[in-house]
User: What shape does this take?
Amino acid sequence: DVVLTQSPATLSVTPGERISLSCRASESVDTYLHWYQQKPNESPRLLIKYASQSISGIPSRFSGSGSGTDFTLSINGVELEDLSIYYCQQGNSLPTFGAGTKLELK
Amino acid sequence: QVQLKESGPGLVQPSQTLSLTCTVSGFSLTSYNVHWVRQPPGKGLEWMGRMRYNGDTSYNSALKSRLSISRDTSKNQVFLKMNSLQTDDTGTYYCTRGLGAFDYWGQGVMVTVSS
Assistant: This one.
């Protein structure tokens, strides 16, 4: 199974700052890497697909980059509504998820 | 519009079998894969298995011996059955649509394994 390692586990943020979340794969997943946001008591929501492709309805401050084993989700100007847990997921082989990164208020 | 909805018992006794149904609308089961994903309380997401659009199934290797996924295309339903439940199977179970990324999710159903 492909193991996805997300870092940091928790990130304390200030509204308005630009942040980056990391997801590293134990083997190459090409660009079959997707990002989700999950707020408390809600289902996950797809943010970015295939490493960098935007999703309709998702604010443009969210962007993704990377290929192979190293991926980044960036938020350009964090807003309070972005305080959530973010998961990466690979689909190059049977799907697996990372353990998540929690954004909290500094 | 695309919708998925999970249904099933909220409480299952240890060693018993869990049966869940995912009822979908707004798309065809013969065009999209449907996956099951679960989440223990306060923990992360775990992919369980999938029903592919062509009827093939795939399972998480850690659950394969206990898990079965099937479907009824005439009723737009996908079924999950998992046997020998233990307390660490407690959590929220989601069905989600995806050919690659999981673009639509159900609201989830909370399952508690307890006597």
Summary: The CA atoms of residues 37 and 76 of chain B lie 19 Å apart. The mean pLDDT of chain B is 97.
